[in-house]
Amino acid sequence: MDKDFEAVILSACRTPIGSFGGVLKDISAVDLGALVESVCENAMDAGGAVEVSAQHGVNVTCRPVAISRAVATLIDNALKYGSRARVTLGRVDDCAVVTIDDDGLGIPEDEREKVFAPFYRIEGSRNRDTGGVGLGLAVARTTAREHGGDVTLDAAENGGLRVRLELPVATASAVPPAGKPEERFALEKA
Ligand SMILES: Nc1ncnc2c1ncn2[C@@H]1O[C@H](COP(=O)(O)OP(=O)(O)OP(=O)(O)O)[C@@H](O)[C@H]1O
Ligand SMILES: [Mg+2]
Fold first, then answer.
1. I need a surface site. Which of 43, 47, 96, 117 has the fewest CB within 10 A?
2. Residue 152 lies in domain
3. Contacts from 16-22 at CB under 8 Å and sequence distance 24+?
């Protein structure tokens, strides 16, 4: 084997798992209620009309930055296509369920899957000063699915849109213990 190539392989084998790109480092068990409230507060600080009612103590094992971004994206849509957002978080069986209702026009039933396709925007949106490119829902759903959950759409009671973000609740064995990422990884694999 070429000596340089061998040296590279050996060095990679000795690299601690926690040093690989932060993928494992990013995972932690979080109280989803606290995370959702914090995202809502940021939106309120930016002038958004957001109401939040979140149950605490619903823990999910996740990449908190990615989940915060997904929730922020969904609230951003509610405020862009409606004028106010009502956000709730509760537990249903083994699922943490975040709902975001708005007071906009909603999305017709036959468009509710299509809007998850990247760059797909409903015709009317293009004439509005919303400035989007059509990636928010696609990315939010990809993030949710990577966590074993999903994002789905429905009609809100007042005719606006209801967005539902579901994530599996952390089980005791799925909650990574505190410690260095490589130690946590070893425990999870054990
Ligand atoms: N809350 C909502 N009410 C009504 N229509 C919505 C809502 N959220 C999304 N849509 C429709 O779905 C389309 C896709 O939404 P998505 O968030 O993926 O992209 P976007 O908002 O257009 O752009 P961005 O990439 O900035 O998020 C929007 O263009 C809009 O037509
Ligand atoms: Mg959007």
1. 47
2. 3-189
3. 16/182, 17/181, 17/182, 17/185, 18/180, 18/181, 18/182, 18/185
